[in-house]
Amino acid sequence: MSDARWMKTRCARFDHGGCGIRVLIDNGTAVQIEPDREYTKSRGYICAKGMASLERIYHPGRLMRPLLRAGKRGEGSWRQVSWDEALDHAASRLQDTKDRYGAQAIAFMQGAPKGLEHMLLTRFANAFGVPNMAARNDVCHWSRELMARVTCGFPPVPDYDMPTQCIMLWGSNPFDTNEEGVLGIEVTECLRAHTPSLIVIDPCETAAARRADLWLQVKPGTDDILALGFLHVIISEGLYDETFVREWTTGFDALSESIGPYTPAVVAGKTWVPEETIRRAARLYARSTPAILHGGNAVENSSINSTSTCRTLAILMAITGNLDVPGGNIQAPFPPVLSPRKFVRMDDTPEKEAKPISVHYGTSRRVPGVPGGLLIRTILDEEPYAVRAVYMQASNPVISYAGSQDVVTALKKLDFLVVSDLFMTPTAALADLVLPVATNMEFNDIGQYAMVHGYVEARPKLVEPRGDCWSDIKIINELGKRLGLEEYFWADIDDCLDEILAPSGLTYEAFCEQGLLKGEKRYRKYREKGFSTPSGKVELYSSIMEEGGYDPLPVADLEETDDRRFPLILTSAKSKYFFHTAYRGIESLRSRAGAPAVRINRETAGAYAIAEGDLVEVASSAGAARFHAILTDAVLRGVVMADYGWWFPEAGERELFHWKESNINMLTSGTPPFNPVLGTPQLRSIPCVVRKVTAA
Ligand code: SF4
C-alpha cells in the first residue's frame, strides 16, 4: 500500500548545493523530484543534475559495500568486507604509518566541498596530527578569497539582494554552471528587476556573454593584463571614488605608478580586446553606482598569475567605492552557528610535529590546506619528506589534477590509499580500500557551512542509505573514534549537527523546518572598526604580500613566448551536465552532454583540415587527448576549448575507465612553474596543436 508523501531537502553531494527540492517518498523510496518553489534561495530553479538525483541514488553502478583490494593495484579484484573490518583495517594502517614514519607520512585529500564532510576531515587531520590536507583551495576559491583578504580583510561577495546598476561577470557563467554560494537564477532575477548593464569577460561566447551589453572576448590567459588595463583607465581618467580612496586606502600612489605600462593600447595588443571596448567597459563599471564585480573560478584557472588578477579585481571593487555597500560586493554576515575555526579544533589540538609541505614550497600558510598538485610532487619526489598513506574523500585526481600521468604514478607509489566515493572511478580503482558513501538524500547534513556567502542550509535525510553506504561524516566520526580520538568525535554523528547549530538556539529539526539560516546583513562596517588589514584600510599596496615575499602590487608579464610547435591556445570550460569529473555514468546527463568535445574556431579548423564531428587529437608539450570537433565562431581564431573532466565508466575498471583517452589533464603538467602564492599549476591557456585522427 502506498504511503506517498512529499518531503523537502536541498540538492548537494556532487555540487556545492543551494537548490531547494521536493521529493515524493513512497514506501521508503524516492520516486519523483521537483523544485521547491517556496525555497527563497533557488526560487523554483533546479538544473539537469539536480533532476538526475534519483537516477543517481538508484543507479546500478553505485558502490554498495566496502571493498578491500584482493589483487594487484588497479587490477579490479576486490573482496567485500563489513564496515567493522574496513574501519579496523584503515585505522590500523594509518596508525601503523604514523607510528613508523610520523604523521607527516599521512596526507588527506578531498574534492570540492559538498556539505560537512570537508570540515569533519579537517577536524580529523587536526586531532590526528596530520599536517597535510590537500583540498582544492589552490585551484578554486582561494585565489579570490585570499587576495581579497590581504587587500581588504574579507572576501567580498556579490550582493544580489539589493538593486545594482551594473553586473560585471569576469570568468563566470552562472546561468549554465551556477557557483558556490550563488545560483544563476539570482543573477537573472537581479538583471530582470533592476540592473540595466551587464558586462561579461570570457574567451568564449557563453550564455552570459550572449546576454551581455558588453562582452570582452579576452585571449585565454591574459585576464591579469586586462584587469590592470581596467585599473589604468579608471585611475588615469579619474573615475575612482576619491573620498573612499583618500580615507580608506593605502598605497594609491604606488599603485598608480605601477600600472603605467598597462595602457589600453598595450593591453588591447596582448588581450585581443579592442582598445575602445576596454575603455567602455572600465568606464561603465566605474560610473555605475553601485556595481557588482562577480569573478568566477575561471579567473583562478586562467593562468598561474591568477593571484595578481584576483588582487586587481579586489582593488577595482575598492577604488570604485563598491566595497560593503548595498548592491556592491559585501562582507556577508556569518550566520549564528558555531565558528568553523572552533569546529575544526584549530586552537585546541596538539601542535603538529611536522610542518606542512607549503613551508617547503614557499606557498602561503594563510590558505587552509596544502596545494594538491604539490602533494602529488611530494609523493613522487619524497621532498621534503615521504608521504606513504592517503585518505581521500570525494575526489578523482587522476582526472581532475594537472599532469594525470604523474598522479597515477604517485597514487600507485603509496603504501596505502583509501578512497570514499559514490561510484568506482579511475582514482578509486587504484585504492587499497574503497568506502561506499551515501548521497545527500540519505543522511542529515548542513550545507554551505564555513563558506563565505552568509548562510547555512538544512539538508535533511529523506530515505535510508542503499546497501551498506554511509555518509562521509559518519565514516570520519567512526574512524576517528577507532583511532582513540573519542574526545574529538560524537557518540552519534547527528549530535555533531546540534553542536554546530547550538549558538542559533535551533535544533536540527527546527532548522530543517526553516531551511535556511542567514546572518544579519549590515553595510559599511569598516566605518566602525576599519578594515581587518594591518593598516585598518584597504591595502592597494599589500603589506601582507610584501611580508610574505610576494609582489605587494598586482603585476602581469607583458612578454610573450612563442613555441612554433604549439601555435594554438587550449582552454577549457566546465559542463552544465557534470560537476567536475562526476556523473559520467548517469545516462540522462551523459546523453544530453554528448561525446567529449573540442570547440575549434571555424577558420582555425579549416587551416588544419578538420571538419565538424572529426575525431581530433589535441597535443601539448605534456601529452595528448582526443575529442570530437565542434566548429564554432564562439571562440576566437587560434583558440581551442576542450571539455574538462572526462572518463568512461562503461570502459570498465580493468581498463581504468580509459582515463587517458579524453582527459584534458593529459595535456597539463604538474611540474613548475606554479603560482608562487598558492602553488597552482597551469590549468588553462596551454600552447597546443590539433590534428585530425585518421583511421589506422
Ligand atoms: S545548481 Fe547545483 S544545487 Fe542546484 S539543482 Fe543543480 S546541482 Fe543541485
Descriptive keywords:
18% strand, globular, 27 strands, binds iron/sulfur cluster, 27 helices
Tell me the Rg in angstroms.
24 Å
Q: State the secondary-structure class.
A: alpha/beta
The percentage helix is 25-40%
Mean pLDDT: 95
Indicate the overall shape: globular
The total of helices stands at: 27
Poorly predicted sequence stretches spanning 5 or more consecutive residues: none
How many β-strand runs?
27
The rounded distance between the terminal residues' Cα atoms is 59 Å
**Small molecules (ligands, ions, cofactors) in the structure:** iron/sulfur cluster
Strand content: 15-25%
What is the spatial order of strands in the main beta sheet?
5-4-17-16-15-6-7
Query: Main beta sheet, described?
Result: 7 strands, mixed
How would you describe this protein?
- By secondary structure, the protein is of the alpha/beta class.
- It has 27 helices and 27 strands.
- A hairpin with a 7-residue loop joins strand 18 (445-447) and strand 19.
- The radius of gyration is 24 Å and the shape is globular.
- The model has no long low-confidence stretch (mean pLDDT 95).
- Iron/sulfur cluster (SF4) binds at residues 11, 15, 17-19, 46-47, 49-50, 178.
